[in-house]
Amino acid sequence: MKKILLAFLVMSAYAFAQDDPMAIKTVGFNSEFAYKMLDQNQDLRKVNILLDEKMKGTVKNNRLIIGTSLISIFDYQHSNTDSKFAYLMRMPTASNQIGKDVTEAVIHSFQLSATAMVNSWLCMHAELLYNPEQSFGTGTITDLERNQIQLRKGFVVFGDLSRFPLYGALGKMDAPFGQMGSVSPFTNSSMWHAFGGLGYGAQLGFKKWGLHAKFMAVQGGSQFRAMNMIVGDNTAVPSKLNNFVADLNYSFPLLTDVSLLIGGSYLRGSAYCQDFPITHFSTPTQNNPAYTYYGTLNIKNYLILKGGFAKTTKVCEGTHNPTPPLDVFEASKVSSLELGAKCNLNQSKKLKYTLSAEFSNVITGPEGAPWERQNQLVFGFQMLFNNSSKLFFEAFRTDGYVPFNFISGSEPNAPFPAGTTHSVSDANSMGIVLGS
After folding, report:
1. What is the predicted pLDDT for the residue at 2?
2. DSSP assignment, residue 423?
3. What is the predicted pLDDT for the residue at 24?
4. What is the distance in angstroms between the CA of the first residue and the CA of the last residue of the chain?
5. pLDDT at site 6
6. Looking at the domain that runs over 70-105+163-435, which CATH code has it been given?
7. What is the per-residue pLDDT for 20?
8. Strand pairing of 63-79 and 26-28?
9. CB-based contact 411:322 (threshold 8 Å)
10. Widest pairwise Cα distance in the chain
11. Fewest Cβ atoms nearer than 10 Å: which of 206, 250, 267, 368?
12. What secondary structure, in 3-state letters, does the chain show?
């Protein structure tokens, strides 16, 4: 990534020296814009943020914008079950949380981004991410495998919505499936954890008259998040662009300063496509599509109510454990519900106060199964300074402990004994998190 950025800067400097009209003539910071692009949980359609900010004139042509974000947190959690903490803002395993009470004072994540506004029709964005708390690396949060830097997102965008309603994007980006943003200041919803896609692909969109239609062709195989598709002769090698997401939403005014957005999406290949035992990113045994519908009611930008529902069209075969006594639980479809509200108490640009509450869940098994469901309830308060820096406090509760990896159990002694699972339906935890 460093070599790519260096090459881009060198080419920009050369173009400037040659008086090229496409030259990057200013390198600098735009903290409000960078905050929106690097926010990890409230608005995840970064391609559209980029296009909208261009149309509003927030960012100018021939600019290279550098952005940074550092989130540090203190948290306390208590569980009624030994070493079963289901809060998903960190990996929920006994490698990370031991006993019934845990505390942390840590760096949750660090991001570094570069956004190049080449001209009115072309721009690029790349983001580096360091996140040991949610890394899939082995060991604890101090293990070197979990302390890596990755290119989290990187894409090229073609289009100018002020002149033409069609646009396109190419690269590694969030899938336009549903409404994955949360109202909470820090915590992602269970909906995002279950269905928030991230992968390689190409997007084509249309935005005009309150109508927004979007199609993304996605690389096959297991992508970085929530998308998996059989490729060729039942493999997961990403050698074909054979998965896709389609999304359509419509925004319209109900009353003066009151608007409603409604929409729906379809995903051809979700992540819930594996046979028993389930492991992250493994080869699918079937394609399992998913759909979602969602809506947001905005009242004078003071009170915002939002919700959505998503579900697979087929059962996830791996949610059935064939070994007694767990074999009595049939395979289940996977679904998720999200309902949230936030109130912006102060509209000042220098300082904004926001209260929020959100309920979300994911259902992965039939009634009575140890992996039946996991609920999450979050109450939040944040102070946003200059539309770019925030302090936040959250109180949360989770019910159910259902990590997707080996959710219904495993092969004998790999890593659990036959006929057992690490999922616990009556486990619950609660806690607080304070951060900036």
Report:
1. 46
2. -
3. 64
4. 27
5. 47
6. 2.40.160
7. 52
8. parallel
9. no
10. 74
11. 368
12. CHHHHHHHHHHHHHHHHCCCCCCCCEEECCHHHHHHHHCCCCCCCHHHHHHHHHHHCCCCCCEEEEEEEEEEEEEEEEECCCCCCCCCCCCCCCCCCCCCEEEEEEEEEEEEEEEEEEECCEEEEEEEEECCCCCCCCCCCCCHHHCCEEEEEEEEEECCCCCCCEEEEEEEEECCCCCCCCCCCCCCCHHHHHHCCEEEEEEEEEEECCEEEEEEEECCCCCCECECCCECCCECCCCCCCEEEEEEEEEEEEECCEEEEEEEEEECCECCCCCCCCCCCCCCCCCCCEEEEEEEEEECCCEEEEEEEEEECCCEHHHCCCCCCHHHCCCECCEEEEEEEEEECCCCCCEEEEEEEEEEEEECCCCCCCCCEEEEEEEEEEEEECCCEEEEEEEEEEEEECCCCCCCCCECCECCCCCCCCCEEEEEEEEEEEEC
Task: Give the pLDDT confidence score for residue 9 in this predicted structure.
Answer: 40
- Tell me how far apart the alpha carbons of residues 185 and 384 are, in angstroms, rounded to a whole number: 10
CA distance 426 to 39: 33
* Closest by CA position to 331, among listed 294, 381, 372, 361: 372
Distant-in-sequence, close-in-space partners of 94: CB < 8 Å, separation ≥ 6: 83
- Looking at residue 136, its pLDDT comes to 85
What CA–CA distance (Å, rounded) separates 3 from 305? Answer: 44
Helix (H) or strand (E) holding 316: none
Question: How far is the C-alpha of 182 from the C-alpha of 186, rounded, in Å?
Answer: 8
For residue 215, which of 246, 250, 261 has the smallest C-alpha distance?
Answer: 246
Which residue in 123, 177, 118 sits closest to 310, CA to CA? Answer: 177
Separation CA 267–CA 244 (nearest Å): 6
Tens digit of pLDDT for each residue in 385-394? 999 999 999 9
- How far is residue 358's CA from residue 132's CA, in Å, rounded to a whole number? 25
Question: Which positions of the chain have pLDDT values less than 70?
Answer: 1-24
Distance, CA of 115 to CA of 1 (rounded, Å): 14
The two structure tokens encoding residue 51: 């296009």
What are the residue ranges spanned by the domains of the chain?
Answer: 70-105+163-435
- Tokens found for residue 114: 């570069």
Count the alpha carbons within 13 Å of 411 in the hemisphere toward its beta carbon.
Answer: 3
Contact 360, 6 (CB under 8 A): no
Q: Do the beta carbons of residue 263 and residue 179 sit within 8 Å?
A: yes
